[in-house]
């Protein structure tokens, strides 16, 4: 299965210090929704986004739960250029 480019967006957290959207690389819709705009340094444990290095959630209320993320297919990724889980770009609303 080829890697695809997906636009993620969310309207759940719309305050300062939040992400509103990102473009990510994944094989499918479900996998794309599990990617945080910060990238692979963060993972979803089923209830919270956690930092992979210390399992803390400090500062990670900046994105929505995967079920609240809108995922739209926007294209295919070039083979060898991008890897699954890559974040191509992200929009952050600094405060």
Describe the structure concisely for a colleague.
With 95 residues, this protein is mainly beta. The chain is built from 1 helix and 6 strands. It is globular.
Q: Give the uncertain stretches in residue-range form.
A: none
Strands of the biggest beta sheet: in what spatial order?
5-1-2-6
Q: How much strand content do the residues show? A: 35-45%
First-last Cα distance: 40 Å
> Could you spell the SSE succession in H and E letters?
EEHEEEE
Principal-axis shape equals globular
User: How much is the average pLDDT?
Assistant: 93
- Count structural domains: 1
- Rg over C-alpha atoms, rounded to the nearest angstrom: 13 Å
Sketch the major β-sheet.
4 strands, antiparallel
Strands, total number: 6
Question: What is the tally of helical segments?
Answer: 1
Q: Can you walk me through this structure?
A:
- About 5% of the residues lie in helices and about 35% in strands.
- The N and C termini lie far apart (about 40 Å).
- The model has no long low-confidence stretch (mean pLDDT about 95).
- With about 100 residues, the protein is mainly beta.
- About 20% of the residues are buried.
- A hairpin with an 8-residue loop joins strand 1 and strand 2.
- The strands form two sheets. A four-stranded antiparallel beta sheet has the order 5-1-2-6. A two-stranded antiparallel sheet has the order 3-4.
- The chain is built from one helix and six strands, in the order E-E-H-E-E-E-E.
